[in-house]
Design a protein that fits this description.
The chain is mostly helical. The protein has one domain. Helix content is 82%, strand content 0%. The two termini are 25 Å apart.
Length: 141
């Protein structure tokens, strides 16, 4: 089961890497000086490719995490720290889905938000990561 845990951690790290970088691309995409068509096309392509990578990382992180819970640690589901961790994971899933929506809006030329908004949006996964790691390491309740 240590291999399953290892793969879970590797794919969680990969997933979060995409969730840290994708909103940064949104920042650049929304900046007024990035409105040249070649730049917009490049950013749209980068966002699309990064989203594809994020799908793989997310699915594999969730697969190995589910495997751990079902096969190795089913009793953990009753513990408060695990429930909060899983709630944070659910929030990450919704954040990821919202990133998909945003990328589609950019691809269609329908973005309505400023680069400043995306700078704040870019910080959200950091909060989720802190909560998830703290719950697993500290196990406060």
């Amino acid at each position: 089961m240590l291999w399953v845990k290892t793969f879970h951690i590797v794919f969680v790290v990969s997933w979060f890497a995409t969730l840290f970088y994708l909103p940064r691309l949104f920042v650049y995409h929304a900046m007024p000086n990035s409105q040249e068509q070649n730049t917009l096309d490049t950013l749209t392509l980068m966002e699309s490719k990064l989203l594809k990578m994020s799908y793989v990382a997310a699915v594999l992180a969730l697969f190995f995490g589910t495997w751990l819970i079902v096969q190795w640690m089913p009793g953990l589901m009753t513990l408060g720290w695990m429930q909060l961790k899983l709630l944070a994971v659910l929030a990450v899933i919704f954040y990821h889905i919202y990133c998909i929506v945003i990328a589609r809006r950019f691809a269609e030329g329908r973005n309505q938000r400023s680069h400043v908004w995306y700078r704040w949006f870019n910080e959200v996964p950091v909060v989720f990561l802190i909560v998830i790691v703290a719950m697993v390491v500290v196990r406060p309740f």
